[in-house]
Amino acid sequence: MADMVSTVGGERVHVRSLIGPNGDPHVYEPTPSDAQALKNADLAF
């Protein structure tokens, strides 16, 4: 998802992926910095 958003948005967007390309969303546990990033985000996918 992050790659697609980055490709479409280009230089107009800053993309931060909370789960890396080889990460497993089933075992992902958010960190306090992840929560802060979501709080400060204008948009989240």
Automatic annotation (TrEMBL):
Record Pfam families: ZnuA (PF01297)
Gene3D superfamilies named in the record: Nitrogenase molybdenum iron protein domain
GO molecular-function term, one example from the UniProt record: metal ion binding
Domain of life, per lineage: Bacteria
UniProt xrefs under InterPro entries: ZnuA-like (IPR006127)
Gene Ontology terms describing biological process: metal ion transport
Segments for region (Disordered): 15-45
Name of the protein in its database record: Periplasmic solute binding protein
